[in-house]
Amino acid sequence: QVQLQESGPGVVKPSETLSLKCTASDYSVNFDYYWGWIRQSPGKGLEWIGNLYHNGGSDYNPSLKSRVTISLETSKTQFSLKLTSVTAADTAVYYCVRGDADFACVVHWGLGTLVRVSS
Amino acid sequence: QSVLTQPPSVSGAPGQRVTIPCAGTSSNIGAGYDVHWYQQRPGTAPKLIIFGNVNRASGVPDRFSGSKSGTSGSLAISGLQAEDEADYYCQSYDNSLSAFYVFGTGTKVTVL
Questions:
Q1: Which of A16, B93, B106, B112 is 20 to 30 A away from residue B73, measured at CA?
Q2: CA dihedral defined by A26, A102, B33, B99, rounded to 10 degrees?
Q3: B93, A104: Cβ pair inside 8 Å?
Q4: Per residue in B15-51, pLDDT tens?
C-alpha cells in the first residue's frame, strides 16, 4: 500500500505560481501505474489535473494545459505540480495520486492539501 | 466541469438497498471505457471502491456492487449501514477534447 503526502504553501497570491510536491513511500518504476494530481474546490466535485507516466510522458486537462506542469523531481522519490497565473478559482484541496494505467482509475490518494489563492 | 451526471442525493433506511446512476455519453462510458466508483467521507480523501465496472477494490464489503450498460454505470449498496453515509463519485475515461479523466457530479448518500 503506497503512501502519498502532499507538501507546499497553503496560500498563494493571485497571478503567482502554485507549487506542490508529492512524496511517495514507494517510487519504484512500474509501467502499470501512473502518478497524477486531482483537485476539489470547496464543497464541489473532483477535477482531474494531469498524469505523469513512467515512460516520461504526460497528459493534462485541456482546460488547464496552458498553465500546468507535472514533473519528476531530481530526487526521483517525489513528483511535483506547478500551476501558473492562479486566480481564486484555483482555490481547492489538491490531491496527489497513483493510478492504474490499464484501468485508468485512481488507486491511491494522498491526504490532500488545501491551497487558497488570496492576496 | 463534470462530464458524468449523477443525482445530487439518495437516501435509504438501514438495511435497504440504494442505487446511484452515472450517466455518460458516447465519448466516455458509451465508447466502451470502464466506470469506476469512489467513496468520500467528510474531511477525507476519496477511496476507490469499484474499478473496471464490477470489481470491488481490496477490503470493500460485498454489499457494494457495480454495473455498466450502454452509456451509463451504476453503483448499488445493499444492506445499507450508517458508515456508508458519504459522497460517491463515478469516473471514466473520455476521448473528446474536454478531458481524459472525467468524474461524475457526485451523490450524497444519507442513511435515514
A1: B112
A2: 50
A3: yes
A4: 999 999 999 999 999 999 999 999 999 999 999 999 9
